[in-house]
Amino acid sequence: MVPVLVFAAISLVTLGGAIAVVTNKNILHSAYFLVLAFVGVASVYVLLEAPFIAVIQVLIYIGAIAILIIFAIMLTRRLMSKDMEERNQQWIWAALGALLLFGVLGWLVYNANWPVIEAAVPKEPITLMGEELLSTYVVPFEIASVLLLAALVGSILIGREKDQESRSAE
Amino acid sequence: MKEFFFNITWIIPVFPFLAFLIIILFTQGNKKLSHSLSIGSMVLSWLVGWGVVFSAIATPHLGEHPIHKSIPWFETGTTTFDIGYWIDPLMAIALFMVPFVCLMIFIYSVGYMGYGTDEVDPHYSRFFGYIALFATGMLGLVISENLLTLFMSWEIMGLCSYLLIGFWFEKNYADPNKITPRQAGLKAFLVTKIGDIFLVLGIIYLYSQAGTLSYADTLFNHEFLAHLAETPALPIFGGWSAASAIALLIFGGAVGKSAQFPLHVWLPDAMEGPTPVSALIHAATMVSAGVFLVARIFPLLNIVVELEQHNPTMGLIAFIGAFTAIFASIIALSQNDIKGVLAFSTISQLGYMIAALGIGAYVAATFHLITHAFFKALLFMGSGSVIIGTHHTQDMMQLGGLRKKMPKTFWTFLAGGLALSGFPLITAGFWSKDEILAHAWEEFMHYGTASWPFFVWLLLTIAAFLTAFYTARQISLTFLGKPRSDHAEHAHETPNTMTLPLIMLAFFAITLGWVGIPEEIVGQGNNWFHAFVGHEYDPTPLSIPVMLLSSGLAVGGLGLGWLVYGRKPLEAGQMDPLQKGMEKVRLGWLYKAMQKRFYFDEIYKAIFINGSIKLADIFYNFDYNWVINPIVNGVGAVTRGISNIFNKFDDKAIDGLVNFTGLSSVKLSELGGITDLKVVDGIVNGIADVTGWIGENVFRPIQTGKVQNYLLILLISMLAIIGIYLVY
Amino acid sequence: MSIPLSWFLVLAAALFSIGLYGVLSRRNAIGILMGIELMLNAVNINLVAFWRYIDPVKMTGQIFALFVFTVAAAEVAVGLALVIAIYRNRDTVVVEEIDLLKE
In a 3-state reduction of DSSP, which class is residue B361? Predict the structure, then answer.
């Protein structure tokens, strides 16, 4: 009974936060609810006995991505005035499409035969993960670093001020 | 009854934390509700806290058998970290002081932030939320059962310090050299962060040796401590033992948080925050956390001494403490801002406590920590009362004559000032300061003049004299004589919410010292404080010469200060006599240096900040002008050169061929063109017209250019495909 | 294990759909990015749920989730840089006004 209640509470928080994100007129409030949704997802990971992923979720999503989003909102603040409509003209179709998608996915989930097994979580998950990352999955690991480097260089190049040329003249 | 209090110790920091959450999330609009929640939570914490304290006092042998309880919090790998509470004499003594002083300051803040007047602070509720969060941090630190939760509480307090110093973040000054509250908050946070790095390193080092961070298994586990003292430290520490190295690193955190040299620069600028903040954080509690931390790890320091080894860390601690004590008291002589004198006084007194711990005077340092908190908070709150009463005048050169106009403030400030100077017998400051000096004297007699205790004793003695002098200076300039400005002329006493806490703190400033009077005076076994806190350490023997000396210093310093500043009080516009005197003996430059706090801020700025900017410039130039760009441009130039060659080839040779082919084709096509024009074109134009019509009226409206439309169509198509797939 | 796997998958599906609605209907470019983040979180919930219920012995599911985190972070950084660059250029973050693809 208790796990069910906990799951229900966490789902409520997560989905409630998510709905608030996509429907709120004030984009900064949307960002705050996004943080709430992330917290909910982190709790889901804890429920799934993956505490490491939960901590990573908090660190990366809340600590980096959400902060980045809030920064970007504050840098582009001027234009979204308070009484601007935040839904575009196809929102009804979008809602119907999303609902339909959810229906299809839900139907799929219930009618599939998932090969569930009752096994226990490994004793030292982090050690195991570290070993696997550096042996079996070392190639994706290295490529991920290159990806991050590319993203780093790319975002700096895209986002910088255009008057760099005048600085080099000094 | 005792068991009841011990079992609910954990709830002490929870009350203010709940108050913080509720105020910040829900009641920011309602001033009365906010301050009631804040003060109410503090009353609860105070009551439970004193319940625990008195239960602890009534528990025999608490020092040998501390009471603690913890629950597992999270595990990583093979370790489980706990969260819990730890009750021992040090904690009980701190718990006596912290909630009570916090409560006094919370009540005082109601008046200071202008509740009920026209000048009430617009962010009144947010202030009460922040100070509640701060109380959470400090109380959490005091009851903490392991170094991890101690560190978390430490960081919470660091955050609150930033938030509260920069509370009036909208304030800007015309003079660009005057630091704004925003900048002061950042400065405090960053400078203490430097100390925190060392603290973290120390904690990690300890964890790597112990596998756990709880006090029970590390700091209070004798075998483990002995093992640490035997183990050599990492090579970077030379030949030190691991215990000394860890203690040194953890001490680094205390240097930052307690504003010791060289990380003292943030505290004077922290006076930009509201005065209750200065009283709470920068006098009574947060800065004491550094001293509390060193007292907590005292077993780590003591074990090395016990095993008769040389403990270099303690020497360093003693040096930094004593040096800070005298250095800050010299600067305090020349400060004109009423809060500035108190800020440097705090730094100096913290130096006393740190120096005491450095020479092994654990009981004396703890005693002074508690008494200092009371009278320093009192002094800051008194200065806040002066500031409010004189419409925000902080420059002492503009005050004067407030004795008649603000009597309650005057008498309580006098009590605090006498305690700070160590006025003999009747003030708390006397007994605690005297114990430190007596201990230093005893060690100095034991080891002779070429030792740390001598150095410490000498510097602390001189600093004691200076402390009394600048205190008399402050009291004389502020309260005696005639008012030197209009604001001082029209000063008025402040409301009861501000003066009542002053009176209550003054009571403790006078009486608290009596619990620690040495045995020789009150009878064997009646030095209650020593018996409770320092059961395993030998009591410092009473030294009549030292007691006479410290009395003499206090009275002498106060008297000299009164002679210079009080007997013939300054008129408006007159120069400070100290400044005049120093200028007469060609030491005017020294006075200026003292006023400018010995230029530490300027030195740090030149070395670290300008240095970093220069370094960044070098890297920028490396990237843009000197190396990387020229290489890239060079490669580009070479490539362009090569393609030019191919271009020329293309122009001459290929084009000739192409042109010839073109001419023949033209002739052929002229023949076909006639056919084309007549027949083919007719068909083609027809098709083109139809296509154009379809494109214009069917396809163009679909390409709105809005990605979201495209995505929607994608979604619907995908769902359609899935639907078809599922059905068939 | 008292919560069946399908519950987690439905939660993820719901989160995904909500994120999708956000992507398709928000006018502010940053709002769309937030929708994308919700979708990626839903994917991660799926991965970790599958890891827990179908093969907890090897850490493959968690490692995959880790890579999704990495990619999401990289994508947000570049995406926001783009938004800011566009904002500087065209003075708007409303995607309906950025319709250069229009014929």
Answer: coil
